[in-house]
Amino acid sequence: MDDTPPLLLVENIGHRVASRWLIRHVTFSLSQGFTALIGPNGAGKSTLLRTLAGLLSRDEGQLRSPWVRNARNITRRIGYIPQFPGVYHQLTARQYLMRTAFWDEPRLGRQVEAKVDAIIERLQLGAIADRRGHELHPSERRRLALASVWLRRVLVVLFDEPTAGLDPEERLKFWQDLYVLRTLPESPRGYLVTTHLLTEVERYCDAVLLVDQGRVTHHEPVAQFIARAEGHTFYAPEGPWGSRVWPTGRASGEGTWVVAAMPHLHFTPRPPDLVDAYLWVRHTRAEEGHRA
Amino acid sequence: MVKIDNVTVTYRPGSSPALSRLTLDIEGSALILGPSGAGKSTLLRALAGLVRPSQGEIWLDNVPLSRRPLAARRMVAYMPQENWLPREATLEEYLRELALLDGYPPTAVRQAVRDVADLVHLRSALPKRLKWLSGGMKRRALLAQALLRRTPWLVLDEPTLGLDPEEQASVRALVRHLSQHRRVIVATQFVEDASLVPDRVIIFRQGAAVAVTQWETFRKAAEGRVWRVPWTPAAVSDGHQFWAPEAGGKTVLLYAPAAAPEQEPGEPVPSHPEDAYLLFMQEQGGRRHG
Fold first, then answer.
1. What strand order describes the sheet that includes A60-64?
2. Closest residue, chain A, to B138 (C-alpha)
3. How close A58 comes to chain B (CA, Å)?
4. Taking CB atoms and an 8 Å cutoff, what residues of chain A touch B161?
5. How far apart are the CA of B119 and the nearest CA of chain A, in angstroms?
6. Is A77 left (phi over 0), alpha (psi -120 to 50) or beta?
7. How far is CA B75 from CA A140, B31, B149, in A?
8. pTM of the complete model
9. Contact (CB<8Å) B289/A34
10. Residues 39-98, chain A, touching B (beta carbon < 8 A)
């Protein structure tokens, strides 16, 4: 995160179905770079993305951006890529990109062609450029969607679970593409990505936005979030351990990796990572909820 | 003991085999790690008697499965990769029915169902219809049905897929515990899941078992081979370098082809188990598409 003004100011937005608010009082400012939208299943992550994209009604609150003069145009500058991006079955990848570029802004055919050629080269889409939509693998469709948001010159891209179900090599390829895209001129400046894989968040993202029960509970740089678990992470011998010790699901030769409120006899301190911080924050929050 | 003897599985005539002349012995619990399309699920389905090898034989505790596929159903409790569940049944109805089919005495069914629901933290979901459960809850419901069965083998296909981080932590802790007390075979594409059965990690690629290792060895296999260098177009140009982006975007990680290069390419970086996996797969021939 740097000193440039935030890309998007989300102010108190909410979406409801009948009288039930699925997300409410959501306020945060999205900075440049990669922000991971994390939280438990059912917390409202997808609802939040779709509300920001304008696919679901914004029933209260507003979106602003210092980068967009007319607030009514703001959703045009936001690109949304669902988990399984759609394609037109009979159009080739190149035709699809041409169509996207025209749709966004009528330009001279020559200009559009040059733009489309440029992005095909930069994202190495040459091998799929002349294949029809129905022949494309889901990961190829996602790369095509990336090319199309670049052509639309959006400010912010919202990604819904782009790496769910991908194996580690496919995930690496996805993040390589995203980082290459970001270095291109006129590329989107901010990326909000939902994922359950905290390892990739720790490696590739700048900040986390933690959502729980339709509200934002934490929004900070990854390192700052990890520091919340400082002093609470240990290698432990086999359990049971008693109360306020939670397994993190990992283990190594040194012992089982746990987060704990206090050090115990036979526990050895261990440096925290994002999984630890997430679990620590969630468990202590659940306890506060119980007390309240 | 599982004895896999020269097994080939082809789903459609003429298509490339999902498993190709696989020979492998598995004693006790094991973890199978590999990319999508490596044949992990096919092997697990074959163990559960759902897929018949087109060639070769699988022996499960000395029972030949291709000749006695129904025996597999009694010996293996299986959690599929897909969330196949009867949508209209409640979780309790579903588990009770399976318990009765498994031969629990009727007086013991209620308690058995509750115990297993507690193990996967789904006690409060018992009265809910399965169609209303979230993806993560469906996954845990499928784990519960496998745990309910009192079979000698427990075969779990991607038990943590689609789970949120808390669910991942609790399911991993549970499966690790089980793997020490029962015979469990887990297939996964998540490198961190490989710590679930630390003593036997079998790596699959393109229908074959390409390595058998241990978690402690594997997770450190990339040490000394990961280097941080500044982001330059040359560093990230595909083809001659194997690289990964790093948060912030000002640096990238380079994976060196072998330990201790003559000239250090950059600043050495502690390696992550996922680095070990990526390097290993790269050396096996790199990714198949994309």
1. A20-30, A8-17, A60-64
2. A41
3. 24
4. 165
5. 14
6. alpha
7. 41, 18, 9
8. 0.92
9. no
10. 39-42
Nearest Cα to Cα of residue B165 among B133, B194, B136, B189? B136
DSSP annotation of A185 reads T
pLDDT (tens place) for every residue of chain A, 292 residues total: 457 899 999 999 999 999 999 999 999 999 999 999 999 998 999 999 999 999 999 999 999 999 998 888 898 899 999 988 888 899 999 999 999 888 877 777 788 899 899 999 888 899 999 999 999 988 889 889 999 999 988 999 999 999 988 999 999 999 999 998 998 888 999 999 999 999 999 999 999 999 999 999 999 999 999 999 999 999 999 878 888 999 999 999 999 999 999 999 899 999 999 999 999 999 998 888 777 6
Rounded to an integer, what distance in angstroms lies between the CA atom of residue B137 and that of residue B130? 9
| Token reading at B256 | 């060196």
* Distance to chain B for A108, nearest Cα, Å: 31
Interior angle at CA A284, CA A26 and CA B169, nearest 5: 95
Domain B2-219 is in which class?
Answer: alpha beta
Answer whether A198 touches B (CB < 8 Å): yes
CB neighbour list of residue B35: distance below 8 Å, 6 or more residues apart: A167, A168, A169, A170, B189, B205, B281, B287, B288
User: In angstroms, rounded to a whole number, what is the distance separating the alpha carbons of residues A210 and A224?
Assistant: 13
Omega before residue B270 within 30° of 0, cis: no
Domain boundaries, chain B: 2-219, 226-285
Q: Are the beta carbons of A210 and A218 closer than 8 angstroms?
A: yes
Q: Vertex A186, ends A185 and A191: CA angle to 5°?
A: 105
B205 membership: H or E segment, kind and range = strand B201-205
Please give the structure tokens belonging to residue A263: 């050090």
User: Which of A41, A167, A252 lies at the smallest CB-CB distance from B36?
Assistant: A167
Interstrand relation of A215-221 and B153-157 (parallel, antiparallel or unpaired)? unpaired
Give how far A73 is from chain B: nearest CA, Å: 29
Q: Find, in chain B, the residue whose alpha carbon is nearest to that of A198.
A: B165
Distance CA B234, CA A155 (A): 27
**How far from chain centre, in Å, is Cα A199?**
13
Find chain B residues with C-beta within 8 A of A235's C-beta: none
Residue (of B83, B82, B86) closest to B94 by Cα position: B86
> Which residue has 């930069």 as its token pair?
A122
Give the residue on A whose Cα is nearest the Cα of B247. Answer: A204
Q: How many CB pairs under 8 A join A and B?
A: 127
Tokens of B117: 């629901």
